[in-house]
Amino acid sequence: MLTILSDTQVRTLSDSIKTIDQHLVTIQTLLETSQTVNFDGTTPAVKTPTAPAKAESQTKTRKSRRGYRALNTKQVLEIKRRLAKGEGATSISRDFKVHLTTINCIKWGKTWKHVTLQQAAPVIVHA
Question: Which has the closest alpha carbon to 81: 55, 107, 62?
């Protein structure tokens, strides 16, 4: 099924969504700042909100969502060196225990663009 809306309907829908979002924020604020009272008039023990714990830095090598290992900068440099030498992406992916697509994305510059191999400056010989 396909629903086609006019520009006016799209604007109205967008405005309604913004209004609902604003109301949700207001409701959330009211709930966070409200006080709970029991039916018998007593106030239950109130838990004071605690500050969120600081996230600890991730280890240098971690697991990605699908269970493959995530790479660090040092490993990416090694992968780029091996690719520059002409080694196949399949063997590199097996060695680093990452998906073949991960290696190809590094190879094609889709990921880890900021990590580059240092190219030696060409030597110019004057005769």
Answer: 107
Report pLDDT for 58: 47
Amino acid identity of 45? A
Q: What is the pLDDT of residues 35-50, one digit of tens each?
A: 666 667 666 655 555 6
Q: Cα-Cα-Cα-Cα dihedral of 106, 75, 62, 96, to 10°?
A: 80
Strand partners, 63: 69
Bridge partner residues of 69 (DSSP): 63
Q: How far apart are CA 30 and CA 24, in angstroms?
A: 10
pTM (2 d.p.): 0.43
How many residues can be counted in the chain? 127
pLDDT given for residue 48 in this prediction: 56
CA angle 122, 117, 79 (to 5 degrees): 135
Q: Is the per-residue pLDDT at 7 higher than 50?
A: yes
For the chain, the helix, strand and coil percentages under 3-state DSSP, each to the nearest 5:
45, 0, 55
